[in-house]
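To assess whether ligand presence alters the predicted conformation, the chain was also submitted together with magnesium ion. Input:
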Amino acid sequence: MKTVSGKGVYGAVAIGRISVFKRQEVQVKRVRIERPELELTRLEAAKEAAISQLSEIYEKALKEVGEANAQIFEIHMMMIEDDDYNDSIANIITSQSVNAEYAVAVTSDNFAEMFASMDDAYMQARAADVRDISNRIIRNLCNRDTANAVSYDKMIVCADDLAPSETVSLDKDKVVAFVTAHGSSNSHTAILARNMNIPAIIGAGEEFLAQIHDGDVAAVDGYTGEMFVCPDEETLARMEKKQKEDLEKKALLQNLKGKENVTLDGKSIKIYANIGGVSNIGAVMMNDAGGIGLFRSEFLYLESSDYPDEETQFLAYKKVLESMAGKKVIIRTLDIGADKQVDYFKLGQEENPALGFRAIRICLTRPEIFKVQLRALYRASVYGSLGIMFPMITSVEELREILEICETVKEELRAEGVEYSESIELGIMIETPAAAIISDLLAPMVDFFSVGTNDLTQYTLAVDRQNPMLERFCDTHHEAILRLIELAARNAHAHGKWIGICGELAADTSLTERFLRMGIDELSVSPGFVLKVRDTVRKLDLSK
Ligand code: PEP
Ligand code: MG
């Protein structure tokens, strides 16, 4: 038995098989060959395999994300059959007597550059597609497995680190735990694990990856931050017992379903849930959340290989609103950038991505993308009680520009005779110190605030939320952060507006009393924390 130790970021216990996440990076070399005709045969086989892989992915996507999103894989299949693309590869192989991998890589570079230099945005986006299909053919030529992780029914995904785009590509029905060498508590992988109610360990150190193998049985304890690989009988029995007790304890909290979030002295607070997509709705219902306080809509973009169109987004928002049957649903406009990278946005490299081109800054620079999302949101608004929330606000001017764009979108919809609700609430995230400090100026312009403590902590303490080396400097209870929240609460209330917290700190029950005393109106937490926070609220007496 080996024991791997790191930091647990969600308290739960899981037992399953290890699946090591591998990144597919193939170095292509130029090799001279004697018989080009054999290379052409290898190429044909690799292309055939690529088409059959893509058709499988298409079928899976069709079921999971709908036809509009799945279409891209059909386009990929057509691109593989394209005559110009194939002529170029064959020409390079025969005229230069080189290996097929090299010919595909050169063709991929040439075509991608050609697409990227076109004026039309749609054609520019095809550059990423041509690279994607070419990499797939190259991996097939090298006999590399195209899957990133071997699949087991109960899999413990182990990786050096996982980017959000990689996490969303995993088969979430089968993942029972994450263990990463790097990562930090507020990274989106940790957040995703909490949303999925599964244990996760971060910061386990690089060495652990050398000590584990695909298929090893392991037990993960998200409470202690330990993973036992190939556990001995006694450890396995102890972990099975702990898992059973944990489930029983969580089942006990289920008794709080239907109960109010009210303190012993009668103060009440709303407890909502955070979600990353339609698939989290079941957990929201099961945990009896009063609404959705944060729908991270960027996951729709992360799960897609091209900009999700208005109809796709409309259907996703409509589904969430309908499922919540009139309960409040706050959808945050896309917060892409920093650690949430999507190839087709072509954001490029930045020196300081967290301080860079992200979230509302992208939306205001590329309003054509922003407007598609706003149109989908306004159209969906008639199906429930919608709040729209804007991330990364730092100034009054930005907010004014956003509100003007919202007005334009409404005017356009009216002109087209498209219905939308007049009672949508518009709010902003308080996640930069600037927004908290000028919250007296921002409050009159919106209906609500929601504090994003993950970024507010990062920007207030100058602690990169992605950097595990800074964990000990990341004091989430720092007085500076709590005072900024309190300031925003005072300013919101002075203007008759409500304020919530949707960052991870909202679930920190050692702060629930302080938040209630500040007058925070709503806490939005991962679905699995709703009943725990309710339990804490119901045991508090603020009169004491
Ligand atoms: C936050 O910053 O606290 C937040 C809720 O947003 P995200 O974690 O998605 O950046
Ligand atoms: Mg944030």
